[in-house]
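dumping this here before i forget
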Amino acid sequence: MLKSERQEQIYQMVQEEGHVKIRDLSNKFAVSEMTIHRDLKLLTEQGLVKKIFGGVQILEQPKEAQQNQCVYCHKPVSNGGKLTYQLILPNNQIEVACCAHCGLLRHEQLGGDVLQALCHDFMTNTTISATAAWFVMDTSLQMGCCEPQVLTFGNQNYAENFVKGFGGVLFNFEEATKRVVQVMHADCCSTQK
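structure:
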């Protein structure tokens, strides 16, 4: 997971353009070239970009690897897909996040470009619409994914009963998105490797 909003923006620029000059990044963000080099260090360590003379370029990964990693934090997608969050975009593009935490953050980034978002009901493992889902955060049950952990439910009563047994706070889609973004900006997310 990237540590700063600037690193995320740099990565997005490099993804869109294929390669970018260090000088151009320095000018765009009004920081020194040394600061850009420090920002790029994490991106290169995670295998997302490759430094080239005077710039940086996207590090192409095999299609299979891209499909098996989270679009937001770049962790491998696991748990048999039970925690995944899918974003349906124009031109039949589908992005998969490892969990609702990353899915909500990516959903917020993409905004109106998201045609539909799907996740899985934690109790029944059925596919549900993310925008109609109920989200439980701060529960005592740990699933070993990104923090703050977010579990999704299709039925409000099931979610409320889950909170009674395992603790946590219940949010609708808008509230959950706002909460995860707020926590992320407070730099409380754990860095996953």
